[in-house]
Specification:
Elements (H helix, E strand, L loop, with lengths): L2 E5 L3 H12 L3 E6 L9 E5 L5 H8 L4 E4 L8 H19 L2 E5 L23 H18 L5 E5 L2 E3 L14 H5 L4 E3 L9 E3 H12 L8 E3 L8 H12 L6 E3 L2 H10 L1 H6 L4 H4 L7 H6 L7 H19 L1
Parallel strand pairs: 1-2, 1-4, 2-3, 4-5, 5-6, 6-10, 7-9, 8-11
């Protein structure tokens, strides 16, 4: 049994911590608010940006999984001190740093996204994500830490709620047979990464030194448009067909006046205006985790949302 530290208990952090516990590992979850303990999981109500506290939490751990999820409007202020603290804890303890990244750092790209592409984003969020990994990779190359980044596309699946384009903005409506609105072109191919596959990849690379020192894309199903995914989900739910409508730039402009989230999404709207396809062939050629079959993803997602609505009203 090994000890793992997980920072954050949002969808990815919770899925990763629970998978590690199921595998028999001892897990310490670090969040500001804390939670009651779960089997195999200790919840610490500590600020992960406090490097002394985080180093204390990571003593004896084999890996630190940084799954922190920060609101977009706090990225610029909160990510740099958190990332510095995480790197300091990894250096002080020798724990492998496993970073949950995303695809923002590439910026707009023509063609499939691969790990070999330059991190050429020009928007503030994309540049920040690129800088976080570049700093960790530099420390890795200096021999000060061991680091790896795992990059999924947009999450969906059980546990994904407010932040998912196929979650709170879509699932409650399609379960009632109501139209779904989406950013950009509803027929543009888009990669959707299943949350349990994200957790399995984070756990796998932590224990395989072949992964360290670079970034990897999470195994992800072949790209499907928002409309195709809504059709699959509504068919499983028995509520289809459901209309899917792209939000116009004008409407988004009005909505951004009232919604901080919509304002922040302007930077990454390009991901929905054109094909946005992640290539995970490098991961699949090296490691064991494979994408969960789409039928299983859809069935589990609909079941989870139905249970959630039944219990929350």
């Amino acid at each position: 049994m090994s000890v793992h530290v997980v920072i954050g208990f949002g969808p990815a952090g919770a899925a990763t911590a629970r998978l590690l516990a199921q595998q028999g590992h001892a897990v310490r979850v670090v969040t500001r608010s804390g939670r009651p303990p779960e089997p195999g999981i200790e919840h610490l109500a500590w600020d992960a940006a406090d490097s002394e506290r985080l180093t204390e939490a990571a003593r004896g751990a084999v890996a630190i999984h940084n799954c922190a999820g920060l609101p977009y409007h706090r990225w610029a202020s909160d990510w740099p001190p958190l990332a510095a603290s995480v790197c300091a804890a990894a250096e002080a303890t020798g724990a492998v740093l496993v970073m949950l990244g995303n695809l923002y750092g590439y910026g707009p790209v023509d063609g499939p996204l691969t790990e070999e592409l330059p991190l050429a984003a020009t928007g503030p969020k994309g540049r920040l994500r690129a800088a976080l990994w570049e700093r960790a990779r530099a420390l890795h190359e200096q021999g000060r830490i061991r680091a790896v980044e795992v990059r999924p596309s947009d999450f969906f699946g059980p546990g994904v709620t407010d932040g998912g384009h196929l979650a709170a903005r879509a699932m409650p409506r399609l379960l009632r047979g109501k139209p779904v609105a989406t950013l950009g072109d509803p027929d543009a191919p888009h990669s959707w990464t299943y949350l349990p596959d994200v957790a399995r990849a984070l756990v796998e690379v932590a224990g395989d030194e072949r992964a360290w020192g670079r970034a990897w894309h999470v195994p992800t199903q072949p790209a499907l448009s928002v409309r195709q995914m809504v059709d699959r989900l509504a068919a499983e739910a028995g509520t289809g067909p459901v209309a899917v409508r792209g939000l116009s730039p004008a409407l988004l402009g009005v909505a951004s006046v009232f919604s901080p989230l919509i304002r922040e999404l302007k930077e990454v709207r390009y991901q929905f205006d054109r094909p946005f396809v992640a290539d995970a062939s490098a991961y699949e050629a090296t490691f064991a985790v494979r994408v969960t079959p789409l039928d299983e993803q859809v069935k589990a997602t609909v079941a989870w949302w139905r249970e959630r609505q039944a219990t929350t009203g």
